[in-house]
Design brief:
This protein is of the alpha+beta class. The protein has 2 domains: 1-36, no CATH class; 80-179, no CATH class. Helices cover 24% and strands 22% of the residues. The protein contains 5 helices and 9 strands; from the N terminus they run ββαβααααββββββ. β6 and β7 (148-154) form a beta hairpin. The longest helix is centred in the middle third of the chain and has 15 residues, at 80-94. The radius of gyration is 21 Å and the shape is globular. Mean pLDDT is 80; it is low at 41-54.
Length: 184
Amino acid sequence: MGERAVRFAPGNGAELVDVCPLCQELALEAGWIKEGSPTTPTLAGDRRRKRGLTERFGLSRASEEDAFAQQEPILRRLSDEEIALLEAADLFNASAYRRTVGGIAKSLGTPEASIVPLSGSAGELVVTVAWDLSWYQYRVSPDSGQPVRLERRGHELDELEPGFKEWNAHVEDEGRLVPEIARI
């Protein structure tokens, strides 16, 4: 009573459950999905049907359903590094730092951003968000109780190591971090 609970779904399609602040870390570790968190889109199984070679090469008339399926983007298997970048962006976007970056961006404009994996087996990554006047670095540790934390900040871009200035992400409205992953 009086605590600020957060709603979680124990599984896909499960009913939402209120979780107290002390148990939120346990819910995340158990794989529960936080209300409002981005999830991977899925395609219904009946939207696509197998096509013969004649239809694949466009030698027959396609129905409306086939035309829709041809317009869908081609999905490809992501590399482990790309998956790590996406997971780091999701963790950052679920943190309070997203709003901080969004607020600063309203004053200073659109920042440059990068997500860089650190060497070692811990799976940690560094998110760098930089403007001409200042920069912030966040350490993302997916297996930690506090997965995102402010690591460093500064005023001059020259203070950053060159590896952190390889801009491979961008910041959208409200400070949402999006990695730039090549599409097919």
